[in-house]
Amino acid sequence: MRQRPAEARALQVSAQFPSPPDTGEVLPEAIVEQAIGWYVQRASGLGDAQDPSAFARWHAAHPDHAHAWQRLQAMGQQLRGSSASVEPAVTRATLGRAATVSARRRTLKTLMWVGTGGTALYLVQDQFPWRSQFAGAWADMRTATGERRSMVLSDGSTVLMNTGTALDVRFDARERRLVLHRGEIMVATARDAARRPFVVSTRDGSLTPVGTRFTVRRDEPADDSLGFTALGVSEGAVEIRTANGNPNPAPPTLVRAGRQARFTRHHVDTPEALQEASQSWTDGTLTAEGMPLGRFIAELDRYRPGRLRCSPEVAGLRITGAWPLDGSDPTERILESLARRLPVKVTRLTRYWVTVSAR
């Protein structure tokens, strides 16, 4: 089949802008989203004649763009190398029927699963530190960096999503399940006429509440062995069941109101008193009570694109305060506040690479 001119030019652009060596670092969610958007658009063959130059500008704008594109191409090559595949004409026609970019992303997910039988896609994803971000790009509900969103589910339960959250809603005749890929949510459950259990699951296990309000947070560090799920219960109680695959699992751990607990696939920490400051984001506030500055900066980093880091010489400073997360550039205002009140300075290599260090 002869290539369309636009497709040929796109391939030439890709050859002219080779990707730099991949560092293996976790990439910002926004850049992963952009790379997926370009991948879907070019796979569909629906781009206009301006697409190649636009792609070249995006590719060259930041090293992370090239890294994201390199990883996505590597994934595509491994998918194409699987024993089962979908004909390119079918892929193009199916994507062509999806009217929006988000719809094409969902369609691409389906085509990949059909083309690999599921197993190959999981294995490919598991080779990259951005695995959860790529999966999160296809989640039913997502929030961008710095965004918070509230929604009411079909059963009347409410969910508040914090920054950088990816969530699937899986309600059927047997249960009401939320799958938290990454990020943080607060859930207030409602009574269900069909008496279906309400479950929140993460990679570490599942949470079954009893008429309750609670928060769940799942971070995805570069080293996945350090990942865990954090639960904080404001009302009622929640049962934790770990996902260790043991045929004789331990009894669930019950966490009551006013308590919190962390757990991994194999272990549940002893529940302790709930730190209410950890839930202040639900009121649009970032709160610290005697918190080390390094930890506070790591929290603030979740609410802004790019990289925000704290130098070791000031990481141990203890801070207490509350800062609003609403309005334009809230993280910039918080950084300015820190620079005024603490013996620190804020160095900006770019807007997307910022360091807090000793003044």
Which CATH-level-2 architecture of the largest domain?
Answer: Sandwich
Number of helices: 10
Number of strands: 16
Total number of distinct structural domains:
3
**Could you tell me how far the N terminus lies from the C terminus, measured between alpha carbons in angstroms?**
63 Å
Shape: globular
Give me the strand/helix succession: HHHHHHHHEEEEEEEEEEEEHEEHEE
The biggest sheet amounts to: 11 strands, mixed
- What is the assembly state of the chains in this entry? single chain
Q: Predict the CATH topology of the largest domain.
A: Jelly Rolls
**What is the average per-residue confidence, as pLDDT, rounded to a whole number?**
77
**CATH C-level label of the largest domain:** Mainly Beta
Q: In percent, how much strand structure appears in the residues?
A: 25-35%
Low-confidence stretches: 1-19, 78-101, 107-135
Write the topology of this structure.
Layout: H1 5-16, H2 29-44, H3 51-61, H4 63-80, H5 88-96, H6 101-116, H7 119-125, H8 131-136, E1 141-142, E2 149-152, E3 158-161, E4 166-171, E5 176-188, E6 198-202, E7 205-218, E8 229-242, E9 253-256, E10 259-263, E11 272-273, E12 285-292, H9 293-301, E13 307-310, E14 318-324, H10 330-341, E15 344-350, E16 353-358
Parallel strand pairs: 5-6, 13-16
Antiparallel strand pairs: 1-4, 2-3, 3-5, 4-5, 5-7, 6-7, 7-8, 8-9, 8-10, 10-11, 12-14, 15-16
Helix pairs in contact: 1-3, 2-4, 2-6, 3-4, 5-6
Describe the model.
The strands form three sheets. Strands 1, 2, 3, 4, 5, 6, 7, 8, 9, 10 and 11 form an eleven-stranded mixed sheet that branches. Strands 13-16-15 form a three-stranded mixed sheet, with helices on one face. The chain folds into three domains: 5-136, no CATH class; 141-276, Jelly Rolls; 284-358, 3-Layer(bab) Sandwich (Phage tail protein beta-alpha-beta fold). With 359 residues, it is of the alpha+beta class. Residues 1-19, 78-101 and 107-135 have low confidence and may be disordered. The longest helix has 18 residues, at 63-80. α2 crosses α4. The protein contains ten helices and 16 strands. 32% of the residues lie in helices and 29% in strands.
